[in-house]
Write a structure and sequence with these properties.
The protein contains four helices and ten strands; from the N terminus they run αββββαβββαββαβ. With 201 residues, it is of the alpha+beta class. The protein has two domains: 65 residues, 2-Layer Sandwich (wza like fold); 82 residues, Outer membrane lipoprotein wza fold like, CATH 3.10.560. It is elongated, with a radius of gyration of 29 Å.
Length: 201
Amino acid sequence: MKITPRHFLTALMAAATLTFAGCATPPPPSTAAMPPPVITLREGDTIKISFPGSANLDTTQQIRRDGKINLQLVGEVDAAGLTPDDLQKKLIDLYAPQISSKEVTVSLLSSTFPVFVNGEVAHPGKIMSDHPMTALEAVMEAGGFNPDTANMKAVKVNRIEAGKYKSYELNLKDILDGKTSAPFYLKPNDIVYVPERFQLF
């Protein structure tokens, strides 16, 4: 068969396609979206409780330091430590003899929690946060590291877990240097301590 310029061009394009297909990097596997964190009510949170069909019972309250709220007809109710859904179910049971609709809606309006930053930072002390906060963000909220004395490679986070103190050591310098590192999210009442860097004289 006589090879025409058209045949030659078609063969050339096919060869190029095979070459690039063999060298192409396969697409990265799809990553499933992380589920949102479970919301757990805690002291200081402001919640709205609605009773469809019994609007006179609607209320907006801040959870007290003892973890309780005070409601009409049922009195004091433990709220801290529950999810909004758990509290809804609890209130439906408590109000069952008083309301006919068997509907209660609990909404979280605002949530703040304290963390503490001490050591070699510009403004040590208590920080109130209304959103998930990492250890590095807490240090920045405290004015940042003292550049002359802070040991950014051995930052400690102390927290109470199951009634016991637990300590974590973080290398925040790696993050500041742009190295890949998973963020360390703080929990209410965590203490972030930035130690002093050892200096030779």
